[in-house]
Design goal:
globular; 13% strand; binds shikimate-3-phosphate; 5 strands; five-stranded parallel sheet; alpha/beta
Length: 178
Amino acid sequence: MRNLVLCGFMGCGKTTVGIRLAKERGMTFVDMDAYIEAQAGCTIAEIFARDGEEAFRAMEHEACLTLGAKEDLVISTGGGAVLREENVAALKQNGMIVWLQVSPMCVLARLQDDTSRPLLQRPDKAAAVDRLMREREPLYEAAADLRIDGEADPDEVVGAVIAALSFNQCVNINDLDL
Ligand code: S3P
């Protein structure tokens, strides 16, 4: 079965939704950040602090190549995985990309006490979210096969993804020239 790849901004619910989605579909869940941390033997925050963002992006790229080549996975990506075109291509090779779209306000509310995301550990958090969101929305949009509103309760988001996937399958069948 093709992978389901969840993408979207930090705090959009990729991990929570991914775990539930994998359970519903009988697929295996992989959190890309957790995978990178296991490979590196330290946290994402430590990688950023010790080696810098570029080193993290290189590890993220390797993770996209490795996980993108597998099957039957629900993969929750980091919010910046779409920054490299080659990452998107690797994830699409065997998978469908689902974008969980959320507003800057929603991100700020969900991550107000978060200390694990290096890019948001700054006094001007709201401005950083606005800037990154403006840069990244076009990339999520371009990468996504499906766009789902990520602001609802996680169970509703899972339901919306499953409904959209079934609808897609129907449309594909109807498209066939039988
Ligand atoms: C990042 C998002 C994080 C993590 C890293 C960088 C980003 O993942 O990969 O801190 O550039 O948006 P989440 O989207 O799971 O928070």
